Amino acid sequence: MRSLTKRFGWLCSLSIPAAVAAVSFVAASTDANAQFRPNSFSVGPRGGSLGGNMRGIEPRFQRFYLDGRDESVLSGRGKRRSTNVATTGPDGRKPDRRPPHKRPPVIVGPAIGAAIGTLGPAAPAGAGPQTTTGRAINIPAANEQRFVKDEVVLEFAGNMPPPRIAQLLARHGLVQLESQTFTLTGSTYVRARIANRRSVRTVLQRLASEATLRAGQPNYLYQGSQQQSEPAAQPPSGDPAQYALTKLRLNEAHHLANGDKVLVAVIDSSIDLSHPELKGVIAGSYDALGKCGKPHLHGTAIAGAIAAHARLMGAAPAARILAICAFNPTSAGIEATTFAILRGIEYAVVQKARILNMSFAGPADPGLARQLAAAKARGTVLVAAAGNFGPKSPPQYPAADPGVIAVSATDADDKMFNASNIGSHIAVSAPGVDILLPAPNDNYQMTSGTSFSAAYVAGVAALVIQRSPALTPDAVRSILETTAKDLGPTGRDAEFGAGLVDAYQAIMAVPSSTAGGPQGGVSQPAVAAQ
Questions:
Q1: What is the CATH number of the domain that holds 430?
Q2: Which residue from 80, 36, 74, 25 is spatially nearest to 56, judged by alpha carbons?
Q3: What is the DSSP letter of 513?
Q4: How far apart are CA 350 and CA 353, in angstroms?
Q5: Judging by DSSP bridges, how do beta strands 263-268 and 320-325 pair with one another?
């Protein structure tokens, strides 16, 4: 008894709850295959030691499994210490030294992650998707539902042989719908349908065990950023209703540059390529869907805001438009998937488009982010609409991507559009309320949305690039921001970013040593219609 008191007398100095917890800890640390030692401890149902000698415990991160098991993955210096397990157990036999069966780590939702301390604080509503710490398995936050409910998008490194892809798909009950090898990221993407009514999240969790898989994610959904549209009468030439021309100082800017020969890719719905406002500016078209619908209001208006030049006037009337159809009409507007947009970006960059206009919004998407980063690295200026989810909405993508110029919308009085998304990611603003633009079948429309603000900025970027084709995407962004007219609170703010774009000042800011006249520009390769 005296020896027990000497060994565990320290318990008497603890409060009753602390003593109970300590006794529980000691009991839980005892393993059938290892002797308990005062200077070591174990955790988890398997009793695996985390730290060795208690005097030298190092901080660790853990992977947690759905069945409650844990596995240490990293110590303070990246080395696992001795577990201090005896060479023989109480029964005199050697312990089982076979490596424990490892199950793939799975992602847990933000609330669970916060509770166990592996993912940090819970993600806010609308936050970007959560990912595993190892393989890039992307599982959307619990409140994110904008994805195809029975599909996943898988990424394989390099040009993966089809038989190996087929084997992986068969193991997980997936049916391949389409695949493509992308030069931008050097990988093969596969769009697959889920069999047996399993959820996207369940399938992605199980895919984490596949060593040949570079990444996996949902096939996310994106919508065009258009708030409303109504037919408009055919305007007279130079209609004063185009207040955006004055706000952006495009009349003065066009004396210096008109976007001549600068290729602007528009990833959108089908465009009315025969509209008089777009005559002579369509460099080519590409169907990323394989079944693109008839010309739509949204895509036609976007192309008009960039390059209209008949009764209306776009921001860059001599630019060349690469019409990429990735969106199809829905009851709520237009919609596209991750896979279709990835195809559109690939085509735009291969055709050497200098500017990529993305007038759509949706969830954070790691596959899309990698593709955009690769496009920017090749010199493509990325412009996107902030979205029409309102000022209380979390940031939308691709506008919130750090490599993208995010554009919010203003009205004729330089006030913020009441449906425009805002946030610290906003770069600049441009007119987007009651904008007169082309519509299919030689018609016109009065429309609102951050979509058209982004299109105007894409057009102004074309003017700047015409003046200096060697400018990098970051240089173009800097010019647009530093020459913008400050609106709202003094300095940069969450609504207008750096301010309202000023096309004339932006062109004047281009280094004079590289500037050219209205007929200057950068030659582009011929683009065949697809």
A1: 3.40.50.200
A2: 80
A3: G
A4: 8
A5: parallel
Whether 451 is catalytic is: yes
Active-site option among 254, 275, 296, 298: 298
Q: Are residues 416 and 279 in the same domain?
A: yes
Query: Domain end: 223, 251, 266, which one?
Result: 223
Q: Is 298 a catalytic residue?
A: yes
pTM of this structure: 0.74
Report CA-CA distances (Å) from 162 to 108, 166, 346.
31, 6, 21
Query: Tens digits of per-residue pLDDT, 367-416?
Result: 999 999 999 999 999 999 999 999 999 999 999 999 999 999 999 999 99
Q: Does residue 530 lie within any of the structural domains?
A: no
CB hemisphere CA count around 82 (13 angstroms): 10
Annotated active-site residue in 260, 268, 272, 411: 268
Angle between helices 450-467 and 473-482 (to 10 degrees): 110
Q: Which helix (H) or strand (E) holds 60?
A: none
Residue 320 CB-half CA count within 13 A: 23
If asked whether residues 271 and 395 sit together in one domain, one would say yes
Inside any domain, residue 27: no
208 and 265 both lie in a single domain: no
Of 451, 453, 493, 502, the catalytic one is 451
Domain that holds residue 61: 34-93
Would you tell me the crossing angle of helices 366-377 and 338-350 to the nearest 10 degrees?
Answer: 10
The CATH number given to whatever domain includes residue 128 is 3.30.70.80
One domain, residues 332 and 387: yes
